[in-house]
Amino acid sequence: MFNTTNEQDIQFLMDTAGQQVLIDDVESVALITNAELGEVESRHIHTLESVPQGAYITINEETYLNVSENTTMRNNKYKTKVQHCNSLLPTEGETIKAIIGYDKLGRPIYETTIVPGRNYPCIVEHLSYKNAQNTAVNTIDDIIYITIQDNEKVSKSYKINTEVNLKGTTLTIRGIDKTRTGLLIFKLT
In Å, how far are 2, 30, 79 from 15, measured between CA atoms? Predict the structure, then answer.
């Protein structure tokens, strides 16, 4: 959309038409354009700094997930595709037990702190359909994909065969795709 190679033109566009966004909770300016229509709302964002794949982008108080790599500058800017996070995936809280002192007999005294879990924005998509042999009707194969930021808390909380309650339905993680830097893609049935 912006086919100028002049660095000053790009800076002028950023200054005049750029929107304030948060990229992993850090303020930035981006030009935002529409991507193709699909099951999940997609946008292209154009920035002067590279945005890592898997970063959360907040646009007008809505959360998006960067689903593409953008390691190369094009026309003096970076362009990446983001998709709207249409659900939240909770992680469980944890209990931390720390020694705060010792009693008269030298036994440790513990303080227990409960750290609440967090809801991570994610993209839920793609009900898979199959056409069984000798039938005229396609049936839902009950496969759902969740794309989420790859971070330590999510990686620890979700493994193969973990049950996930998604919008009132309990599903089981059958596969985890870790091939895309910064992203985890869960296959649930």
Answer: 14, 9, 17
**Residue 124 near residue 166 (C-beta atoms within 8 A):** yes
pLDDT in 10s for each residue of the chain, 189 residues: 555 567 788 888 888 888 999 999 999 999 999 888 777 889 999 999 999 999 999 999 999 999 998 888 888 889 999 999 999 998 888 888 999 999 999 999 999 998 888 899 999 986 655 555 555 555 556 789 999 999 998 998 999 999 988 778 888 999 999 999 999 999 998
Name every residue whose Cβ is closer than 8 Å to that of residue 7 and which is 6 or more positions away in sequence.
76
Cβ neighbours of residue 136 closer than 8 Å, sequence gap 6 or more: none
16 phi, psi to nearest 5 deg: -100, -35
State how far the Cα of 109 lies from the Cα of 107, in Å rounded to an integer. Answer: 7
DSSP annotation of 116: P
Q: Are 139 and 130 in contact (CB under 8 A)?
A: yes
